[in-house]
From TrEMBL:
UniProt keyword annotation of Methyltransferase present: no
InterPro entries with a match to the protein in the record: IMPase, Inositol_monoP_metal-BS, Inositol_monophosphatase-like, Inositol_monophosphatase_CS, Inositol_monophosphatase_SuhB
Organism, as annotated: Methyloceanibacter caenitepidi
Catalytic activity, reaction form: a myo-inositol phosphate + H2O = myo-inositol + phosphate
Cofactor(s) needed: Mg(2+)
Biological process annotations from GO: inositol metabolic process; phosphatidylinositol phosphate biosynthetic process; signal transduction
UniProt cross-references to Pfam families, sorted A to Z: Inositol_P (PF00459)
UniProt cross-references to SUPFAM superfamilies, sorted A to Z: Carbohydrate phosphatase
UniProt enzyme class: hydrolase
The family this protein is said to belong to: Belongs to the inositol monophosphatase superfamily.
Record-given protein name: Inositol-1-monophosphatase
CDD domains: IMPase
Amino acid sequence: MPASALMNVMIGAARKAGRSLARDFGEVEHLQVSVKGPANFVTAADLRAEEIIFAELSRARPGYGFLMEERGEIKGPDGTHRWIVDPLDGTTNFLHSIPIFAISIALERDGELVAGLIYNPVMNETFTAEKGQGAFLNDKRIRVAARTELATSVIGTGIPHSGRPGHERFLGEVETVMGTSAGVRRTGSAALDLAWTAAGRFDGFWENNLHPWDMAAGIVMVKEAGGYVTDTNGKDKIFETGGIVAGNETIHLKLLKLLKAANASAASPAKAG
Ligand code: 2AM
Ligand code: CA
Ligand code: CA
Ligand code: CA
């Protein structure tokens, strides 16, 4: 299917920023790095990529607002459209020359996510989705995996660094999911976790304490690939809570129940005997 005018704008911005990231990826030892918090780095590569995406999207769609990881919220005269952008998701991988990172761009219209793009320039993988149009990897239609048993499922997740909120809770959850599934994977890029779930590589994904720019494009992607995405209570307050659970209808539901059980047993006092 030929990409829409909107998707071509998003692809154009991502490819240009991707060339900048690919150049920096070859020279990581020379990158300027600053520390924003515990295990939270920002490099010159993040900033350069964000600058390119901001310039390209502003030129193509003047007036749209932005929510970007490094620049924050930028209101535009157009009150209905907002780009949600992570210029480099997986900065820690990037700094270690691990080729698992991505650019994530989503468009929100009247508060509803209508398009998403996740681009890994090293693997040359462009995941795209528009509301009602399905999800694609490069030019190929993608769908969530069909598996319905957790025992044979591979589940993606992200680990909150010990200095971040949710670390203790995560340890209980991951122990439960590891004991129930065929395996847990942690890529270091929430955007790619969601894209890989949309493509059926992961059967499911969950993480806590994420930001809208980590998830926005991936939410559209998973839904358009036929999957289910909610917060950890099964509701739609994903951005408000920072928690996300994704998968096909069955795995999504089973994951929700499993995480709930893991947290209930962690919260209850130690049993006698
Ligand atoms: P980043 O690389 O854009 O920072 C991995 O579990 C996810 O957590 C990635 O999407 C990563 O995005 C994000 N992340 C890394 N460090 C973080 C921090 N200190 N606070 C919140 N999110 C973080
Ligand atoms: Ca970051
Ligand atoms: Ca991120
Ligand atoms: Ca980032």
